[in-house]
Amino acid sequence: MTTPAHPRPVSSLAAVAAVAIGFGAIVFDGYDLIVYGSAVPALLAHKEWALSPAEVGAIGSYALVGAFLGAIASGSLTDLLGRRRLFIVSLAWFSLMMLFVALAPNPWSLGLFRFLAGLGFGGIPPTAIALVMEVAPERRRHVVNGLMLCGFPAGGILASVLALVLLEPAGFRVLFAFGALPLVTLVPLAIWLLPESPDFARSTRAAVRRELRGLLTGRAAVATVLFVVANFCGMLLVFGLNTWLPQLMRKAGYELSSALLFLLLLNVGAVVGGLVGSSLADRYGSRWVAATLFVVAVVSLGLIAVPLPTAVLYALAFVAGAATTGNQIVIYGYVAAHYPAGNRATALGVSSGVGRLGSVTGPTLGGALLSAGVGLGGNVAVFAAVAVVGAVACAFVPRPLSGTVPAKVLASPTAGDGVPA
């Protein structure tokens, strides 16, 4: 790979374009992963297919398996081939596959295309995060990255709203087809406006391969394992709570409308938590912000099971969203800032890929607990224990050795926590 020794710096307009296009891609990444749950009632009612709940659940999991594989593969490919190229390929791929999902003639093809779309879903976050963290202003890169990643809960909200409006009159195919919209909107914009990372442009292929090998040795290997644990715990909490919180609150005696309001507040809290947590990470370092938010999750989840006034419980759901989904945004930034450009996307791909397994485990764990007759108190106790593990993992990530992070980061008084100077 031949690259210029001094690549042209990214302009402010190109940086804004990268963040805006990344935000749009993350919105549809979240939409396409979450919209399936909104379409489940219509799939079960589709008489031509006569699907059982178990079959519908299995098809839903195929996209998450694809996302797991896509995240790990795209991370390494992005570090070798460039952020821009892999981002555009991943975006175009999952958009095209969502069109095929909408046109699927039978359950088998629906599952296949959901799996293939998942390969693209998994490739978007590590590629977009690596690019945005490298083009954003040094002192604000965590909050800029956090702003982009707020697209995920925004995509979930979009999926819920469109399901309310379109599912009954138009059917599930229209909801799936909406997920193909980036193919004619974001993809052309990305080809036209998206810059390449200047950090990637400076690197040579041999240097990148050395850094990728270094990811599996010494302190870097320990950090990677702990980031994997933190991401797994974070995604387990995100998808476990988003799947089961309304049902848990209904079993606790709340009406359906009140139970759904808990879910809405959980996702509103996620947006606020992601932005505030990322801003604090720019100022104080990712390590203790991420660990502290996990601890806040422990406390808020524990208190949700206590008989308290409804208004207080609503506030606790908001805080729990900030400390779980919001914290996942902080963790992504923590990983990205911890590693140099040569293996940043690979580290993000591995940690987010295994994190996707947490997104499968969370709903499964909640369902198993409910099937066993475990109520609200027992469920939140298990989720709180997961948050404790996540806090410990974040707190014990070893600081990178001198020479494994950019000099500007090492010059920071909180070097190794992901805070640039």
Overview features:
421 residues; mainly alpha; 18 helices; 80% helix; disordered N terminus
Outline of this structure?
It contains 18 helices and no strands. The protein is mainly alpha-helical and 421 residues long.
Description:
The chain has 421 residues and is mainly alpha-helical. Helices cover 80% and strands 0% of the residues. It has 18 helices and no strands. The chain has helices at residues 12-45, 53-81, 83-102, 107-135, 141-149, 151-170, 172-178, 186-193, 198-202, 205-214, 218-251, 256-284, 286-304, 310-323, 325-338, 341-371, 376-395, 407-410. Helix 5 (141-149) runs antiparallel to helix 12. The two termini are 30 Å apart. 55% of the residues are buried.
